[in-house]
Amino acid sequence: MRKMGLDLGTKTIGVAISDELGWTAQGIETVKRVSLEKDLERLEQLIKEYDVSEIIVGYPKNMNGTIGERGQATEQFAEHLSSRFQLPVHLWDERLTTVAANKMLLDADVSRKKRKKVIDKLAAVIILQSYLDYHS
Questions:
Q1: Smallest Cα–Cα separation from 120: which of 95, 104, 98, 105?
Q2: Which residues in the chain land under pLDDT 70?
Q3: Cα–Cα distance between 51 and 49 in angstroms, integer?
Q4: What is the DSSP letter of 68?
Q5: DSSP string, 1-13
Q6: In Å, how far are 11, 41, 72, 115 from 8, measured between CA atoms?
Q7: What gap in Å lies between CA 67 and CA 87, rounded to an integer?
Q8: Does this model's pTM top 0.85?
Q9: Average per-residue pLDDT in the chain?
């Protein structure tokens, strides 16, 4: 059974999946957001395809640890995931994951155009990998 990591944005959702042993995270897709129902339909397809048993959602806290508007939207999305898929859904602190992902891509000399296409997927990998590392 695999774990799914999500980097939830307003326009896209970065998706990562663990290996079957739960050691490593791989980015698989950036879902373009259309509507809550369409977003959940696509995630359902991926959950079935990869036999996902647990979902980890990046939780955007403010730097002082408070929960802002994006954090509240993430909490609501996590509730939708939990009720629809009947799987454990965990919110995982994602502060600075997009910054880290951007730095990795800059260090790898990836062009701005290509960075824009993969940044959310890479952020999802960082979120999921940090969750896996913490729980190993």
A1: 98
A2: 96, 99, 115
A3: 6
A4: -
A5: -EEEEEEE-SSEE
A6: 8, 15, 12, 17
A7: 24
A8: yes
A9: 90
